[in-house]
Amino acid sequence: MPETESVQRFFPLIKSNTERLLIASTLDSLIELGLMPRGTTQSAFISLCFSRGFNDYLKEVVIDE
């Protein structure tokens, strides 16, 4: 499955080309800086971003309890 179809299928909230371009350029920059491994797909990057955000919420829940 091509990368654009994969992003559209698994992350339907990301609809605009501007959002896709922002994700692609951010991922490219992180790869160039060595902060993300080469070969990381946009879908994997988006999933990681959602996961990290979710983990931040979980940390807040644990702190509040």
Secondary-structure blueprint of this entry?
Elements: H1 3-10, H2 17-32, H3 42-64
What can be said about this structure in brief?
The chain has 65 residues and is an all-alpha fold. The chain has helices at 3-10, 17-32, 42-64. The longest helix is centred in the last third of the chain and has 23 residues, at 42-64.
> What is the rounded distance between the termini?
43 Å
Q: In terms of structural class, how would the helical and strand content be classed?
A: mainly alpha
Radius of gyration equals 14 Å
Beta-strand portion reads: under 5%
What is the quaternary state of this protein?
single chain
What does it look like?
The protein is mainly alpha-helical and 65 residues long. It has one domain (3-64). The protein contains three helices and no strands. The longest helix is centred in the last third of the chain and has 23 residues, at 42-64. The model has no long low-confidence stretch (mean pLDDT 78).
Output the keywords.
single chain, 65 residues, mainly alpha, globular
